[in-house]
Amino acid sequence: MAKPVAAPTAGCCSSVLAAPLAESDAAELAHAFAALADPVRLRLLSLVAAAGEVCSCDLEQPLGKSQPTISHHTKALADAGLIVGEKRGRWMWWSIVPGRLTDLRVALG
Length: 109
Known about the structure:
The protein is of the alpha+beta class. The protein contains five helices and three strands, in the order ααβααββα.
């Protein structure tokens, strides 16, 4: 059985409105928001969320991007803890990390 590429992250940071952020929390939030600051990555995230789970091979056509470009963007999202991948054969299957987007919404609220 294949192992996940990125482990889901635990609950993130406290609200930016509740108190000044710790340096480590600010760095974590900035990393996640930077990953979301690209239109291709936002579309990729929405495709994964809509499908529940999607193969990298099925992202080329809807995104209009090459496989190396998709790999670059999935890596950025996975490094930010937004998606998790599982290798099956020669392809990666991606799914959303449960609760991660909620953590980011809470941090902004």
